[in-house]
Amino acid sequence: MRNNKFLRFLTSKYFILGIQLIISITVVYFIFKLNLVPTKYLIGIIAGLLILLCVFFGIIYSGEKKDPVSKRSGITKVISLLISIILVIGCTMISRGDRFIDKVSDATGQQYVISVIALKDSDITKKTLSGKKFGVTYEKDSTTLTTALADMEDEIGEQEYQKYDNYIELADALYSGEVDCIVAGEQYRSMLQVNHEAFNDETKVITSYTYDAKLEVTTKKTDVTEKPFSVYVTGIDVYGSLKTVSRSDVNLIVTVNPKTKQILMTSIPRDCEIELHSNGKLDKLTHTGNFGTSETINTIQDLLDMDINYFVRTNFSGMTNIVDALGGITVESDEDFITLHGNYHITEGLNEMDGDKALCFVRERKHLKLGDFARGRNQQKVLKALMDKALSPKIITNFDNVLSALEGTFETDMSSDEIRSLLNMQLNDMADWNIINVQIEGEYYDCYETYSMYGTKSDVMKPFESHIERVRELINKVEEGKEIKDSELKGLTH
């Protein structure tokens, strides 16, 4: 008898609709807490949930009044339970989205990675490191390297190290057999590759030591929904952790005016000749990443005489994960070529790309008619394709998988509240954005005097001063809310 009463309670309209009410309140709370959905939509959601409850109550009440076991009432109760389940799933997605925004924002750290490297065909393992001959250089780094050597000796005992003047000699020593292994910072791989282009394919990392450091950037925060702002987008040339200090192979300045709905994307080639902010020495833009994101940002601010408000950074693995998470992208290529990495055939016109193909596409420059200029253009195309795909309603159907794949693929120093306010603004007005792509170009020459690779031949692009001045003017126009005419873009786009 008692069981029958309990069963009747579980199947009663008050219990079933009570569950729906509690879950509805919880969903509204999470939506409100997220501060992502505009007020007009939130009011609509609340009204819709209340109307559903009232309608269901009316149907069940009227049905049970005529017949205690009304079929109509039973079906309505089932629908109510199904809606409650859907709301629970929605609440979970909202909560996870909230956590995701918190994770990618407020980036404050970076990592220095010191690796013990041996030739790939050697039989050296971490267990057999003791007693091997090690090569080192203090050319660009002494503090972190010294710390790593001390930690290494704690693991395998005291060792002897052969010192070399620079990374080129260090790599040569490994290949010639003068040493069994070399110990070097991952950010200096490009220097190890000078005489050994296939260095990455012909060597292996035996073990690595990672050291955290505070990232102190000089970006200028602003009201992202009311005032123009610029974001530095960087893609570092490593796999693994986003925080790893490494070369900056992708360098985009995205200038946004939230009032006029205008976006200017400025690509700066990695080989661009610059003066380092820290010491005024001549170097390539890509090498600034070896000294941390802050050095790159400060150097670009000097070059373009502008303020950068935020940064976003990703890496090779982040790039592939983002594209795959979105289900691939469609990118238009201006020419037909085979990628150096991955050996992908890119046709002139539209190309369907998964993550690896897209990565190989944006890395390619050697097989392009305009070299690094074309690569910068292709990077902009991929970024636009990603933005188009991310704003597509189809993303909702794969929301959970997308979030899983995106975790750890990029980070920004924009706060979570600022990200939410931008998304809230877009959802509120659903505005179409005018996206303009430009690129700084220049003349290439052989340089032996870069700070990072002094005495070694480097391909350096001396930017056209006219391009720099024109880009400065365009950035100012976007910030001032002025219209950019097609004639002002001549020579800066392709």
Give an overview of the whole structure:
Strand 13 and strand 14 (about 345) form a beta hairpin. The chain has helices spanning about 1-10, 15-35, 40-65, 70-105, 145-155, 165-175, 190, 200, 295-305, 315-325, 355-365, 370-390, 400-405, 415-430, 465-480, and strands spanning about 110-120, 135, 160-165, 180-185, 205-215, 230-235, 250-255, 260-265, 275, 280-285, 310-315, 330-335, 335-340, 345, 350-355, 410, 435-440, 440-445, 460-465. It has three domains: about 1-95; about 110-215, D-Maltodextrin-Binding Protein, domain 2; about 230-490, Aminopeptidase (3-Layer(aba) Sandwich), CATH 3.40.630.190. It starts with a helix and ends in a 14-residue tail after the last helix. The strands form six sheets. Strands 16-11-6-7-8-17 form a six-stranded mixed beta sheet, with helices on both faces. A five-stranded mixed beta sheet has the order 3-2-4-1-5, with helices on both faces. A two-stranded antiparallel sheet has the order 9-10. The protein has 15 helices and 19 strands. It is globular, with a radius of gyration of 28 Å. By secondary structure, it is an alpha+beta fold. The longest helix has about 35 residues, at about 70-105. Helix 2 runs antiparallel to helix 3 and helix 3 packs antiparallel against helix 4.
Task: Briefly say what this structure is.
This protein is α+β, with helices and mostly antiparallel strands and 494 residues long.
